[in-house]
Write a structure and sequence with these properties.
The complex is a heterodimer of chains A (118) and B (106). Chain A has 118 residues and is mostly beta strands. In chain A, 0% of the residues lie in helices and 50% in strands. Chain B contains no helices and eleven strands. The relative contact order of chain B is 0.34. The mean pLDDT of chain B is 97. Classes of the chains: A mainly beta (118), B mainly beta (106).
């Protein structure tokens, strides 16, 4: 079955970076789109960016352009999302989401909690 | 960015009620609108895509409609397991954007 297993919770200081992994299995990783969505405590969903399939391009939401980097390791069927220059506003649960249907968010990881505190 | 205005932000209903949640797009998004359900502590789950198509395994009491830039999610005969937060999401343009969410309580 489709599985997206994300790395564990992180505690970071303001100004630091965080790198979250998302290990995929049970579907064709090469041809799938991988999105990143985050959710601050008690807040709604916020789309961050997408890794297009087959080694294609990455698109970021303008808010995260220059601060987020998504990379895909096809041999390890893993996607990584690094976010730099963290502030308290970046404290959130970060989800990776896989889909073969472009922008219809089918399969969600379990989420990775990121805490930012001095 | 396309703004998705979702209402109400919360509602209280009884088991068996019909519940309606709306989402207004700030510009034409055609049918490029999805609905998700999120239960506490869990990841969101896709319910409806392309405005009105029920995803596989979703109960038929859920339905979606579109009228211009106005979208509606209806839950017919509300069940206890439908208690959750609901979000709309557009994919007409980047960045993908979500509505603010609707909390459905009993």
């Amino acid at each position: 079955q489709v599985q997206l297993v994300q790395s564990g919770a992180e505690v970071k200081k303001p100004g630091a970076s965080v790198k979250i992994s998302c290990k995929a299995s049970g579907f064709n990783f090469v041809t799938s789109y991988i999105h990143w969505v985050r959710q601050a405590p008690g807040q709604g969903l916020e789309w961050m960016g997408i890794s297009n399939p087959s080694g294609g391009s990455i698109n970021y939401a303008p808010k995260f352009q220059g601060r987020a980097t998504v990379t895909r390791d096809t041999s390890a069927t893993t996607v990584y999302m690094q976010l730099t220059s963290l502030t308290s506003d970046d404290a959130a649960v970060y989800y990776c989401v896989a889909t073969a249907r472009g922008y219809i968010l089918d399969y969600w990881g379990q989420g990775t909690q990121v805490f930012v505190s001095s | 960015d396309i703004q998705m205005t979702q209402s109400p932000s919360s509602l209280s209903a009884s088991v068996g009620d019909r519940v309606t949640i709306t989402c207004q797009a700030s510009q034409d998004i055609s049918n490029f609108l999805n609905w998700y359900q999120q239960k506490p502590g869990k990841a969101p789950k896709l319910l409806i895509y392309d405005a009105s198509i029920l995803d596989t395994g979703i109960p038929s009491r859920f339905s979606g409609t579109r009228s211009g830039t106005h979208f509606t999610l209806t839950i017919n005969t509300l069940q206890p397991e439908d208690i959750a937060q609901y979000y709309c999401q557009q994919y007409q343009n980047f960045p993908l954007t979500f509505g603010g969410g609707t909390k459905v309580e009993i």
